[in-house]
Design brief:
The complex is a heterodimer of chains A (115) and B (111). By secondary structure, chain A is an all-beta fold. In chain A, 0% of the residues lie in helices and 51% in strands. Chain A is built from no helices and 11 strands. In chain A, the strands form 2 sheets. In chain A, strands 2, 4, 5, 6, 9, 10 and 11 form a 7-stranded mixed beta sheet that branches. A 4-stranded antiparallel beta sheet of chain A has the order 1-3-8-7, with no helix packed on it. In chain B, strands 2, 4, 5, 9, 10 and 11 form a 6-stranded mixed beta sheet that branches. In chain B, strand 9 and strand 10 form a beta hairpin. Classes of the chains: A mainly beta (115), B mainly beta (111).
Chain lengths: 115, 111
């Protein structure tokens, strides 16, 4: 049963602590993404990775870090430098089919609350 | 600077009628466009995509139209059903695999 898993569903942390959000996919997709969604906002791109051992900053990368050591995994660390870390975090992966069709699939999300 | 814009925050449509959701973009280098449906506290669900070399793609009740000269795309849902009530996001993919989203349009299907 292929898909994208994010764990945990809810995460609570104290201010000043780093926290790592997990994202795993078994779809054999090359590209993976992290977005955050805030109330009333669209999805804003944090980081993305086209291949293993490579990743690029999105529009709001400050205060975040990622790694892509395996094709299946793209963990996101929210550091203490991130000023407003409380948000709904979404991981996604994508594939292009023979150049004719493009699809991107999302995980269920992790709600992070920092107090 | 918003590269993908959904100018209508919400839309109400009678059940059984056609729902039309609109999206504008500014970057002519986008090569694919995607539509998603999202419920609260869940990940977005991929609905349909269209390549920049096409002007229409259809999948069941969902059809996406692309007007490159106007940098505009639209999603048509026919007929609209109660389960279609959700937030719909338009997104565009650049050649470097970067995918940019609009802010979404909330669709209400009225009984």
């Amino acid at each position: 049963d292929g898909g994208i898993t994010q764990s945990p569903k809810y995460l609570f942390r104290k201010e000043g602590q780093n926290v790592t959000l997990s994202c795993e996919q078994n779809l054999n997709h090359d590209a993976m993404y992290w977005y955050r969604q805030d109330p009333g906002q669209g999805l804003r791109l944090i980081y993305y990775s086209q291949i293993v051992n490579d990743f690029q900053k999105g529009d709001i990368a400050e205060g975040y870090s990622v790694s892509r050591e395996k094709k299946e995994s793209f963990p996101l660390t929210v550091t203490s430098a991130q000023k407003n870390p409380t948000a709904f975090y979404l991981c996604a992966s994508s594939i292009r089919w023979q150049g004719k069709r493009y699809e991107q699939y999302f995980g269920p999300g992790t709600r992070l609350t920092v107090t | 600077d918003q590269q993908v814009k959904q100018n209508s925050p919400s839309l109400s449509v009678q059940e059984g009628r056609i729902s039309i959701l609109n999206c504008d973009y500014t970057n002519s280098m986008f090569d694919y466009f995607l539509w998603y449906k999202k419920y609260p506290a869940e990940g977005p669900t991929f609905l349909i995509s269209i390549s920049s070399i096409k002007d229409k793609n259809e999948d069941g009740r969902f059809t996406v139209f692309l007007n490159k000269s106007a940098k505009h795309l639209s999603l048509h849902i026919v007929p609209s059903q109660p389960g279609d009530s959700a937030v719909y996001f338009c997104a565009a993919r650049g050649r470097d695999d970067k995918i940019i989203f609009g802010k979404g349009t909330r669709l209400h299907i009225l009984p």
